[in-house]
């Protein structure tokens, strides 16, 4: 039973692999593209091909870049004294959107996981230790997710960095902006109590 | 404040225009693509560019095709006596997935809308009238959505086809497969009652 022509079905199958899109929404997205072939589809295909060719990992921090060094590592205005360690490039982007951090980053590319056999080498943790030894770094901020995996990884990194004598910190815990106590989980409320500050 | 490199931001902006994706999920999708550059991103960019170049509207029925005639119109096994009129290519795909129709299609490309000034010419309705006159068509099935716009369009087409003497039908109304009466709207239940059949 004929559906769409083969190439279109192949495109739908590829689109359906994207996170947030299933077979049905991929079909809808492709149909939308087909209706706007010159306006959206061709520019999108070109942009994607261009990025696929130029994008690479920054050799220092692991951020995604179109150069050997990412814009943050290449920026002389960014402080060299503080390194913020994040799990993923999306976390780096989130921190940059929030503003307020003017140091540099180190992207792990995931968290330690015995189940998925992700060890320290796969996470660029040895690279981080080397960076601390080589550069004049005074502080490492572990901006990892507040999940079990994130915190396990944070503990491992803190231990690995202990011999270097660098100051290691993690993100503050507490009530998020706009947060209502009634809707917060117990762990957050307990953490906020423990992290109470005098006003 | 630097976020992602410019080309990546441009790609995210293009992806965010797809239905079902917003700025946030487009960012996630692009990040996923960036992690699988050779495995997913390049094939996707190539498939998209290829489809953008080859896809066109079938000159007879308006289905999307990579040829002048779509596979259905080109198939000699598909009956020429019955034409099924649909709003959109996605409806045609849905009918083909369901199976059970072996005739040919006519894709309107939308519904009549005074507000959006969509008239009969924009919907290929004159083409349909010409097709009925030219080919030996005995029946036209109006498989339009059961919405106000779909039914308005169906009424208009039925009137436009009246002089040709062709038999015009619409899809049956009633309880959908697996439907529970308690959860059905009043309109559907009333329609199912009106369309009751002796067993």
Q: Could you describe the 3D structure shown?
A:
2 copies of one chain form a homodimer. With 199 residues, chain A is an alpha/beta fold. The first copy, chain A, folds into 2 domains: 6-54, Helicase, Ruva Protein, domain 3; 78-170, 3-Layer(aba) Sandwich (Dna Topoisomerase Vi A Subunit, Chain: A, domain 2), CATH 3.40.1360.10. Helices cover 44% and strands 11% of the residues of chain A. In chain A, the strands form 2 sheets. Chain A has a 4-stranded parallel sheet with strand order 4-3-5-6. In chain A, a hairpin with a 6-residue loop joins strand 1 (56-57) and strand 2. In chain A, helix 1 crosses helix 2. The longest helix of chain A is centred in the N-terminal third of the chain and has 18 residues, at 37-54. Chain A is globular. At the A-B interface, helix 1, helix 2, helix 3, strand 2 and helix 5 of A face helix 1, helix 2, helix 3, strand 2 and helix 5 of B.
The greatest inter-chain interface is formed by:
A-B, 56 and 57 residues
**Gross morphology of chain A:** globular
Structural category of chain A is alpha/beta
**Span from first to last CA of chain A?**
71 Å
Using only C-alpha atoms, the radius of gyration of chain A works out to 22 Å
Mean pLDDT of chain A: 88
The stretches of 5 or more residues of chain A where confidence is low (pLDDT under 50) are: none
Number of strands of chain A: 6
* Helical stretch tally of chain A: 8
């Amino acid at each position: 039973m004929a559906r769409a022509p083969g190439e279109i079905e192949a495109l739908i199958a590829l689109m359906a692999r994207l996170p947030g899109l299933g077979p049905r929404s991929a079909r809808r997205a492709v149909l939308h593209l087909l209706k706007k072939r010159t306006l959206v589809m061709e520019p999108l295909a070109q942009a994607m091909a261009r990025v696929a060719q130029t994008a690479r990992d920054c050799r220092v921090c692991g951020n995604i870049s179109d150069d050997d060094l990412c814009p943050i590592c290449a920026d002389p205005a960014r402080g060299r004294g503080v390194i913020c360690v994040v799990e993923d490039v999306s976390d780096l982007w989130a921190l940059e959107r929030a503003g307020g951090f003017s140091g540099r980053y180190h992207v792990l590319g995931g968290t330690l996981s015995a189940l998925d056999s992700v060890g320290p080498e796969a996470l660029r943790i040895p690279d981080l230790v080397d960076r601390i030894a080589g550069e004049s770094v005074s502080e490492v901020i572990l901006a990892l997710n507040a999940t079990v995996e994130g915190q396990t990884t944070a503990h491992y990194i803190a231990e690995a960095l202990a011999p270097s004598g660098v100051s290691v910190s993690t993100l503050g815990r507490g009530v998020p902006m706009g947060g209502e106590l009634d809707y917060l989980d117990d762990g957050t409320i307990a953490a906020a109590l423990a992290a109470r500050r005098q006003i």
